[in-house]
Write a structure and sequence with these properties.
Chain A: This is Chemotaxis protein CheW. Chain A: It comes from Hoeflea poritis. Chain B: It comes from Hoeflea poritis. The complex is a heterodimer. Chain A contains 4 helices and 11 strands, in the order αβββββαββββββαα. A 6-stranded mixed beta sheet of chain A has the order 8-1-2-11-10-9, with no helix packed on it. In chain A, strands 3-6-7-5-4 form a 5-stranded mixed beta sheet. Chain A is globular and about 45 Å long. Chain B folds into 5 domains: 171 residues, Four Helix Bundle (Hemerythrin (Met), subunit A); 175 residues, no CATH class; 60 residues; 179 residues, Histidine kinase-like ATPase, C-terminal domain (Heat Shock Protein 90), CATH 3.30.565.10; 149 residues, Roll (SH3 type barrels). Chain B contains 24 helices and 24 strands. In chain B, the strands form 5 sheets. Chain B has a 6-stranded mixed beta sheet. A 6-stranded mixed beta sheet of chain B has the order 16-20-21-19-18-17. In chain B, β10 and β11 form a beta hairpin. Chain B is globular, with a radius of gyration of 35 Å. Classes of the chains: A mainly beta, B alpha+beta. Chains A and B meet through β4, β5 and β7 of A and α14, β23 and β24 of B.
């Protein structure tokens, strides 16, 4: 990966694109630690609905967040075909449940269009911008704003 | 290894030194008069000073210097270590610790406090203390080396003022005459010249480099130490001394040529220069061989400014030759120019002096051999190891489980191998945990300072007695112990003990005693803080509780219940709020922080006799023995320490209570039955008590409750995994763990569940940090 990053043009960066339902999203590849299959999670009492529970990631206790539900869409019904993106947000590591990972994109900041003004549950604060790639619309989301620091304390 | 790492090591050593210092001083305080104790104290300060000099920590050096000077008086029996003296010394040790911390972490120490102590220490060194009737200030030759090359150490002046005889040094003469100047003999007449009988004679040529002074060593102290070995003749060669306008104030220009008549061997002589030998040119030769070369070398010892241990060739040969002839016959005393006669009352404490001179060497040997048996390891590495072993335990359990499931139980070789593996894993785990186990001693030592300061602040006379300092407990627990202990100790001093007047009125000695003890009891560490004060004033506590609306005026409370009121939030009985306690966040916060560690705290009090706070804590925060239970579809772990018994409820034992409450009668006493599944929101349907199992648990207020779960799966040791690391504190849940099947299981916070069942809602734990 280091090799590729070096070869990247100035200002370019890589994003991981994934699918939730019919929509596509992407996050910065630098915050992604690994991608793994779904394993049943241990539910946590009194947790927000989008927190599915915790799983064992090689000895670490990893909370799993249903990203669909967190973005205000339908709650997922996790199955073996779902995928967990293990990402680092602030100092913590969380697992994001998504339907499938589709692509690795290399883009420059010019490719990113500002989020259009829409009234949607998918709040503008989550979406950093949208990308048009081969006729698809991919929404770039910012994990830091989805999981603001200290939010988890309130949960 | 860069400078910062070296500095880090220095500070670690400082910490050890300070601990040793405090231990020694406390021993002195208790009347220990072993010279080795004084020596240990002296050495501790001396090495801190030496190290601090190397890092140019001037504040530290200058304070340590004064401190050391006073300790030297104690060491040489010029100053008696009375209680009052030791009190000043203990305060000085505190300031020294503060200065060390300030040097490490930045920040500063109140200069006025330092100055006051420096004054006290100097007064002690000068014998200005009513307790000691001897004139103390006969510091020999204190300023013998106050030639221009001496490091600027103004406070050194104080120690020997009375005896110091100024030596007129004519710099003009020096300049004119250059190398040809005439030797100026001078001597201190006060000291008789009583020659030691048969002994070895060493010729010691000692040429300090500027670094020697920078590191806080001092020629005077070295020479004085030499002098204690026997009879010393010292000559100073100042031929290299430049004219005053070319003189570098931090330079070193003097060479000391000493002849020592001693009964000690060469090693003892060398050990004097142990801390200095890298920063000077040093030749030690038995005089038998030296005699011939003395002619050449003595008048103007031609020591070239090369690296240490490199001397003119002739002398080097002498050293090697003399080593073989250590026991050389004494020869006539060498006549040397510029003789400073340092002969002290040498015969007086010969034996003791020899001991004290040998002591640094003994310590060095000890630390050298100690280096072989202990190593310093970064805590992070041990934590990684512990984590890995935790993984190993989980993996081993998973393996065992899958072997059982795959029903190959017929193969006894596999089963036996697994059993061995299990045993080995357990042993590895125990050994790894033992690495992190530490004695509580350092914490206890810190408490003695807490007691001193608290006592001073409230004007009480308090002595701390400690017991079981060697009790070991995991580092994770040690780190969290200090805060609640500090609170409780202060509380004992402030509230527990009466004022000296009241104590005397009650027929007790004015000095109150706070006793801190630690011991292991059934897999936990039990800490007791006992004071011999008045005990809890139950009437006052009760009245206060009523005033604050904590209890109703009619309520009948047992003594125990009243005593435990002091753990209630917002409770403080001190009539006057003092600086150190009484903000009403004391004991309840202590209780919560101890509970957060999986511990318990209780109090027993006897009016007029005092109170005893008892804390019991798990030995480690890394693993715990738990009971694995099922609740709904979940698997939970309940800490075994909180479970008193388990029972299968029967119809006649279950009693409805109010709308939804249930009580269970256990041997005719009624306990609330708590449905864990409902409290933790795992099931909507109440669990049928008759189908489940009740776990009788202890809660911190002394009451008992029964937790209702669906089934008990078994009992096992689990590795505690933090939920906070990646998520957050979950109310009702203490932590998580990973079971044999690789699944995460949650560890129940029994106390939180019990209190939630009373208030109806789970709240997050309040921690000490959150309150302040």
């Amino acid at each position: 990966m280091h090799q590729t990053s070096k070869n990247l043009a100035e200002g370019a960066r890589e994003l991981i694109a994934f699918r939730i339902g019919e929509q596509e999203f992407c996050v910065d590849i630098m915050s992604v630690r690994e991608i793994r299959g779904w394993t049943p999670a241990t539910a946590l009492p009194h947790s927000p609905g989008y927190v599915l529970g915790v799983i064992n990631l090689r000895g670490a206790v990893l909370p799993i967040v249903d990203l669909s539900s967190r973005l205000g869409m339908n709650e997922s019904d996790p199955s073996a075909r779902h995928v967990i993106i293990v990402a680092q947000v602030h100092q913590k590591v969380v697992g994001l449940l998504v339907d499938a990972v589709s692509d690795i994109l290399t883009v420059t900041d010019d490719n990113i269009q500002p989020t259009p003004e829409v009234s949607s549950e998918l709040d503008r604060s989550f979406a950093k911008g949208v990308l048009a790639i081969e006729g698809r619309m991919i929404c770039l989301i910012e994990l830091e704003s989805i999981f603001p620091e200290g939010e988890s304390e309130a949960a | 290894m860069d400078m910062n790492e070296i500095k880090e090591i220095f500070f670690q050593e400082c910490e050890e030194g300070l601990a040793e210092l405090e231990t020694g001083l406390l021993a002195l305080n208790d009347g220990d008069d072993d010279p080795e104790t004084v020596n240990a104290v002296f050495r501790a300060v001396h090495s801190i000073k030496g190290g601090a000099g190397a890092f140019a920590l001037d504040d530290l050096v200058s304070f340590a210097h004064v401190f050391e000077t006073t300790l030297d008086c104690v060491r040489s029996k010029q100053l008696e270590a009375t209680r009052d003296v030791v009190k000043v010394l203990l305060k000085s040790a505190d300031v020294l610790a503060d200065l060390t911390n300030a040097a490490r972490d930045g920040g500063s120490v109140d200069p006025a406090r330092c100055q006051a102590l420096v004054a006290d220490l100097e007064a002690l060194a000068n014998g200005e203390i009513p307790a000691s009737d001897d004139a103390v200030a006969d510091e020999p030759a204190a300023e013998a080396e106050s030639a221009p090359a001496d490091e600027p150490a103004p406070e050194a002046q104080a120690e020997g003022e009375d005896d110091f005889k100024p030596i007129p040094v004519q710099f003009d003469d020096l300049e004119e005459k250059g190398d040809d100047f005439e030797p100026v003999p001078f001597s201190f007449d006060d000291f008789g010249t009583d020659q030691a009988p048969s002994a070895n004679i060493f010729r010691i040529v000692f040429k300090p480099k500027p670094d020697l002074y920078l590191k806080g060593n001092e020629t005077l102290l070295l020479l004085r130490e030499l002098d204690q070995l026997g009879t010393l003749d010292v000559a100073c060669d100042w031929s290299e001394l430049p004219a005053i306008d070319e003189l570098d104030p931090e330079g070193a220009y003097l060479t000391w040529d000493a002849t020592l008549t001693t009964s000690e061997d060469e090693d003892a002589v060398r050990s004097v220069f142990e801390f200095a030998e890298w920063d000077c040119e040093l030749t030690i030769a038995a005089a038998g061989e030296e005699a011939e070369t003395a002619e050449d070398a003595a008048p103007q010892p031609d020591v070239e400014p090369e690296t240490d241990e490199s001397q003119p060739d002739t002398e080097q040969e002498d050293v090697s030759a003399s080593k073989e002839e250590e026991q050389a016959e004494p020869v006539e005393k060498l006549e040397l120019p510029n003789v400073i006669d340092l002969q002290q009352a040498a015969g007086a404490n010969r034996q003791q002096a020899a001991e004290s001179a040998a002591a640094p060497k003994a310590q060095a040997t000890a630390s050298a051999s100690g280096a072989g048996s202990t190593i310093r390891v970064e805590l992070g590495r041990i934590d990684r190891l512990i984590n890995l072993v935790g993984e190993l335990v989980i993996n081993q359990a998973m393996l065992a489980q899958s072997v059982t499931e795959s029903a190959t139980s017929g193969s006894s070789a596999v089963t036996m191998g697994l059993e061995d593996l299990q045993q080995l894993t357990r042993e590895i785990q125990d050994s790894v945990m033992a690495i992190r186990a530490q004695p509580v001693k350092p914490i206890f030592q810190r408490m003695s300072r807490t007691v001193r300061e608290a006592a001073e602040m409230v004007g009480k006379n308090v002595r701390l007695v400690t017991e079981g300092e060697a009790t070991e407990v995991d580092k994770t627990v040690i780190d969290k112990l200090s805060e609640p202990l500090t609170h409780m100790i202060r509380n004992a001093v402030d509230h527990g003990l009466e004022s000296p007047q009241d104590r005397e009125a009650a027929g007790k000695p004015a000095e109150g005693i706070v006793k801190l003890s630690a011991k292991h009891r059934s897999g936990r560490i039990v800490l007791e803080i006992a004071d011999d004060g008045a005990g809890i004033n139950r009437e006052k506590v009760r009245q206060k509780a009523i005033d604050r609306g904590l209890i109703s005026a009619e309520a009948t409370l047992s003594d125990e219940e009243i005593d435990n009121m002091i753990f209630h939030p917002g409770f403080s009985t001190a009539e006057q709020l003092s600086d150190i306690s009484g903000r009403g966040v004391g004991m309840d916060v202590v209780k919560r922080s101890i509970q957060a560690l999986g511990g318990r705290v209780g109090i027993t009090s006897t009016p007029g006799k005092g109170s005893v706070f008892t804390m019991s804590l798990p030995l480690t925060l890394a693993v715990l023995d738990g009971m694995v239970v099922s609740v709904g579809e979940q698997t939970l772990v309940v800490p075994l320490t909180s479970i008193i018994e388990t029972l299968k409820p029967e119809t006649e034992h279950i009693h409805g209570f109010g709308a939804s409450g249930q009580l269970i009668s256990i041997r005719d006493s009624f306990k609330p039955l708590i449905d864990v599944g409902q409290i933790l929101n795992f099931s909507n349907m109440p669990t049928d008590p008759l189908a489940g199992v009740a776990l009788l648990v202890d809660s911190e207020d002394g009451g008992q409750s029964a937790l209702l779960v669906d089934a008990i799966q078994g009992q096992r040791q689990v590795v505690i995994k933090s939920l906070e690391a990646n998520y957050a504190n979950v109310p009702g849940i203490a932590a998580a763990t990973i079971l044999g099947d690789g699944q995460v299981a949650l560890i129940v916070d029994v106390e939180a569940v019990v209190s939630a069942s009373r208030s109806g809602a789970l709240k997050s734990e309040m921690s000490l940090a959150a309150v302040g």
